[in-house]
Amino acid sequence: MTDKLSQSADKVLDHYTLFRQPEYAAMFEKKKTEFEYGHSDEEVARVSEWTKSEDYKAKNFAREAVVINPTKACQPIGAMFAAQGFEGTLPFVHGSQGCVAYYRTHLTRHFKEPNSAVSSSMTEDAAVFGGLNNMIDGLANAYALYKPKMIAVMTTCMAEVIGDDLQGFIANAKNKESVPADFPVPFAHTPAFVGSHIVGYDNMIKGILSNFWGNSENFDTPKTEQINLIPGFDGFAVGNNRELKRIAGEFGLKLQILSDVSDNFDTPMDGEYRMYDGGTTIEETKEALHAKATISMQEYNTTQTLQFCKEKGQDVAKFNYPMGVTATDELLLKLAELSGKPVPASLKLERGRLVDAIADSHTHLHGKRFAVYGDPDFCLGMTKFLLELGAEPVHILSTSGSKKWEKQVQKVLDGSPFGASGAAHGGKDLWHLRSLIFTDKVDYIIGNSYGKYLERDTKVPLIRLTYPIFDRHHHHRYPTWGYQGALNVLVRILDRIFEDIDANTNIVGQTDYSFDLIR
Amino acid sequence: MSLSENTTVDVKNLVNEVLEAYPEKSRKRRAKHLNVLEAEAKDCGVKSNVKSIPGVMTIRGCAYAGSKGVVWGPIKDMIHISHGPVGCGYYSWSGRRNYYIGDTGVDSWGTMHFTSDFQEKDIVFGGDKKLHKVIEEINELFPLVNGISIQSECPIGLIGDDIEAVARAKSAEIGKPVIPVRCEGFRGVSQSLGHHIANDAIRDWVFEKTEPKADFVSTPYDVTIIGDYNIGGDAWSSRILLEEIGLRVIAQWSGDGTMAELENTPKAKVNLIHCYRSMNYIARHMEEKYNIPWMEYNFFGPSQIAESLRKIAALFDDKIKENAEKVIARYQPMVDAVIAKYKPRLDGKKVMIYVGGLRPRHVVDAYHDLGMEIIGTGYEFAHNDDYQRTPHYVKEGTLIYDDVTAFELEKFVEAMRPDLVASGIKEKYVFQKMGLPFRQMHSWDYSGPYHGYDGFAIFARDMDLAINNPVWGVMKAPF
């Protein structure tokens, strides 16, 4: 033992420096060789190489049961997200309590914001007798403590498996005066073993709308000039919803976002904690029934909701996470068509500036190969934008993706010569994507923070453009939608490309060339 | 400038005021979980380890979180199947920074998420057949896996699946331990039962079914680290001290741990327990069955580290005792320098703590070493024996809150205005918005390690950077 310590008060070493010091390196080696009884380095290296092979890929793709690193969460977190976009709304998750701790944690780690939701904390006795008492007491407590304007109820898989009936339970709780009879308690059954978070989102929006609009079909509902817009589950909602509102302002049209989390998930730090902030008000939600049309920004987040809107006599239009020039064009043209107002000159100017930026940078994008993964709508939007940039989307993967979705992606790919080498992989996971990247290499991966392990394994740089982003800060505050959003996405991709070139040309005396000042 | 404006809060009165907001039934129940510590108290005078009240926003998790997330998940050379719907494994995927070294995906799987992704048909017809297939596929795609655990999610226990039968069959078939864990989230009242169930699964499915490695040679100095999950490398900055005093750490439970280390643990001379709450069960079992004594220790802050090193050394011969003194002396100048640098910046600062089952007491003296004061503390999932161990650390008048609700914690902090809140990610931004410095004390706020002497320097630096960052000074707009 030497007397010199690595750690010091002058320069405190963090974990990423501390554990590289020789005393720790020696300790790790000793632990490994004396106590871990692991496999030999040669065997590990052999298997590691095998996992990169075509043979491994075939076995990996033959999987029928185990899911490894999926790109989907379960229904209730989507339902919670949807509910949190309404003013003063407290999500109430009926079932086991651990689930709520997980949802809150997940959303908080992405948005770096508080996230409030309660659980009915069902345990073994409720599993036997049902959770009615948990609902009765839970609603009373939540109402008294957190003074919400609305409580939106959803379920964990536990409550679904035992078959708790939300409608009956809520009525029962109201009879017991847990909350006033006229207090809004919309609900949605959100079984975790059906669909994913995007289906939960759909169920909750429909649950809230039907609470205020009524369940019955009414094609003759009187209409106003208003247009509703449902954003869907979106990690960039803070930036995107604000951008949509700005676009509506430029247009001069009455655009009502149904479920707007942009303020709730971006509260200021000024000494006051706001448990609720902003969101679609109850009045606005009621009024939205009379809108002439409802637009969905994410088709797969709103399948049932849009059907429900149709049954209220509304026109509906659906998009797939529209990003880039033409997708934004289509969105604006739809707004123009529905409102009868022309696309304003200011937005045309923004479009020109975006196209200008793409033209300035196209040389660095042309022919670059990408893997894209995430929710079905995001993948569609991203693929379309990449094609527009002259980049080549190669592997497009979504665990929530269906056969229908695969066809939809293929259609987008078929629409451009840059899509020739692309293929959609619905129902597959990030371990499949690892095989795809090893056997058919790409230049960049677009996904979320979970992709960092793929980046480490394959050495293909990752660009974080979809939920969840835990290990980079604040990007969700900037839009990815609209021309302005497309510009942000463009810059994020370009930055990663330039950083990558610099990182691969920075060895003095070896790669002095190509380490260019001007690009 | 200190942010504590209110130094003379009538805490008893505050508790009553906060309870006023509850409906009567819940008020009565919550009142039993809140108390102000009295002089010479034998425990904290609160009820614990009982069900959370519905609808109050408890901060607790579930048994699955306690088993998969805490105890089993960090065993790196095993694959842990989140058995049931996709969510539980997704949310707990790589969320806890249990550091390990290994080739992830090849011989280690700690930061991956494996699930049987239950669909409606699995609920209706049962998931055992699928589980067979899941295990076969894992063994084929990951041939170097040294064991597989089945972490049950809520539906498993409700639909009557027989995962034990699957585990027995598959273990025989693949020749590797397959361990069923009945940690369904609805069991018990918090993570705590999940710890216990996970401990019992090690007892029944590792100790009962495997043997220590045949070539393992014991020495008189063999110890284990039990209940250290290596968050940010905590077990490593602890292990290095134990090795320095001449002991041989034959197993880490479970941070950076392996199946072999679990299997060899009955060969230990002493089990050293850091997180008593989550792993006392297996230590007690080994004491009964293998006659291995166990000892609690505390490696937070130099006072506790020195005391613990001496207590540990006292179980061994004079050579180890001398080594312990040498090690304490060796680190003393660094400790003195850390305290000289940070204590003037932190002296007298007040802290409110709310964490899991150990740290609400274990970190207290580390704060004291820096001249800081604890004015409130509480546990998410402690039992009575934890509350009995707590008065040793905190003083009379400290506010104690068990299974605190978001509402209560917010009101307590608002009234007591500590200089620092030390809690979890769900609490972090609430208090930062209120203008209060905050440190996550589950994850070390992505810093760490905090254990051991090397960790104490980081702990001190982190508390300083939280409290003395200039951002708090610009919070109020000048207009």
TrEMBL record, chain B:
PROSITE patterns: NITROGENASE_1_1 (PS00699), NITROGENASE_1_2 (PS00090)
EC category name: oxidoreductase
Alphabetic keyword roster: ATP-binding, Iron, Iron-sulfur, Metal-binding, Molybdenum, Nitrogen fixation, Nucleotide-binding, Oxidoreductase
Catalytic activity: N2 + 8 reduced [2Fe-2S]-[ferredoxin] + 16 ATP + 16 H2O = H2 + 8 oxidized [2Fe-2S]-[ferredoxin] + 2 NH4(+) + 16 ADP + 16 phosphate + 6 H(+)
Cited InterPro entries: Nase/OxRdtase_comp1, Nase_comp1_asu, Nase_comp1_CS, Nase_Mo-Fe_asu
Cofactors demanded by this protein: [8Fe-7S] cluster; [7Fe-Mo-9S-C-homocitryl] cluster
Name listed for the protein in its UniProt record: Nitrogenase protein alpha chain
Organism: Azospirillum ramasamyi
Taxonomic lineage of the native organism: Bacteria, Pseudomonadati, Pseudomonadota, Alphaproteobacteria, Rhodospirillales
Gene: nifD
